[in-house]
């Protein structure tokens, strides 16, 4: 148990490394870091999409702690738990306040729309019942007797209302996946159509039935039945507009992540730009590999290292433009040798990754072999003395912790995997009798964002930037951008071309042939 506790204390320091010189260097760099520039010169329309709530996937401190550390961080650094340092700028405060205001506005708009839809739906279901009950309450004695046909209409109205209620629940009563910046046009048109339809029925009912106190009760019931039939047709129209219309693929969209250039292609139907953005984001979380900014720091540090090796001396009092031209010329002269450095850096990194991967695979296989040996021993013990999967995972984890730490450190994935998540995954694999290869799949290959914990999702708020109105439909050549905190998704829309197929008839007799054998053969 002491070994497991020591390993846990060492492993808990994945993103909190301490060293006085590194700490001072990081603080100095934060003080000299220039504020971001605001882009206010664009004339594009920008709206916000609120996705399911989650916390940022990475912090700036975790990415800065990655720079300048050797591979033996587990032996040469001190793990500090329970303490963290955060810095925030005036721009961050303004952005946070703006996000809060936007979220409050979106919540009010969402609840207002739900309230209007609920009130209108209640009015729709109570109207046919009111049409039937009001004559019985107001002038019951003057009504003509309801015969067999009239009583049969009661059953028809009851079952049609039940079918309409189930269909409305299945189509409209769904958990919202996101908050869109503008109203859904077809849904709003359907609400307006239903309101006008029910209002016209009530107007006719008040003028021709309530004012005249019509005594033909069977005709009144038939009038209510016609209302329910029309509502069923409107529900069918809603299914066509909201669900069926978008099923046929009409456009192909290319989604490119701005930081690393990873791209995917998707086929979409007739959708508005804001709904197409929602489809893109849903597919992004399951198709794109998780965004890792630590992998992008290598090229930046390499460029900074090249520029740091250049020294410019102002001998004859030239201005700053002359110095910049001298630095650019010197950098161009060193460009021929930089590709060799890049080649050897990548080769050395691949060698270290393969070496750490091999050590990790061997360590995990040995640990799972130990589990099988423990399972064989546990079968001979009493039922009360057997270990649960959690205890078994804690028992074998120290044997693989060091190799796993080094591999995740080399591949820069340690910020995505906490010790608790690894233990839960290990106990899950032990419970379901999974192989070492199945356990390592999560760590050897970076997966999509949904593979990781919900609190590590990168962004909860996306901003949609489009030159066209977000309620307009997709068209060929439209480009819109989805922005979050650290990267953006550039979406390019292309229409699927019209395909013309022609048929060519092949005569079945054309496949027949005659095989002629010579009478004389060579011996």
UniProtKB/TrEMBL annotation:
<feature type="compositionally biased region" description="Basic and acidic residues">
    <location>
        <begin position="36"/>
        <end position="45"/>
    </location>
</feature>
<keyword id="KW-1003">Cell membrane</keyword>
<feature type="transmembrane region" description="Helical">
    <location>
        <begin position="111"/>
        <end position="133"/>
    </location>
</feature>
<dbReference type="GO" id="GO:0005886">
    <property type="term" value="C:plasma membrane"/>
</dbReference>
<feature type="region of interest" description="Disordered">
    <location>
        <begin position="1"/>
        <end position="86"/>
    </location>
</feature>
<dbReference type="InterPro" id="IPR009539">
    <property type="entry name" value="VANGL"/>
</dbReference>
<protein>
    <submittedName>
        <fullName>VANG1 protein</fullName>
    </submittedName>
</protein>
<keyword id="KW-0812">Transmembrane</keyword>
<feature type="compositionally biased region" description="Basic residues">
    <location>
        <begin position="19"/>
        <end position="35"/>
    </location>
</feature>
<feature type="compositionally biased region" description="Polar residues">
    <location>
        <begin position="74"/>
        <end position="86"/>
    </location>
</feature>
<keyword id="KW-0472">Membrane</keyword>
<feature type="transmembrane region" description="Helical">
    <location>
        <begin position="224"/>
        <end position="244"/>
    </location>
</feature>
<keyword id="KW-1133">Transmembrane helix</keyword>
<feature type="transmembrane region" description="Helical">
    <location>
        <begin position="184"/>
        <end position="204"/>
    </location>
</feature>
<feature type="transmembrane region" description="Helical">
    <location>
        <begin position="153"/>
        <end position="172"/>
    </location>
</feature>
<dbReference type="Pfam" id="PF06638">
    <property type="entry name" value="Strabismus"/>
</dbReference>
<comment type="similarity">
    <text>Belongs to the Vang family.</text>
</comment>
<feature type="compositionally biased region" description="Polar residues">
    <location>
        <begin position="1"/>
        <end position="10"/>
    </location>
</feature>
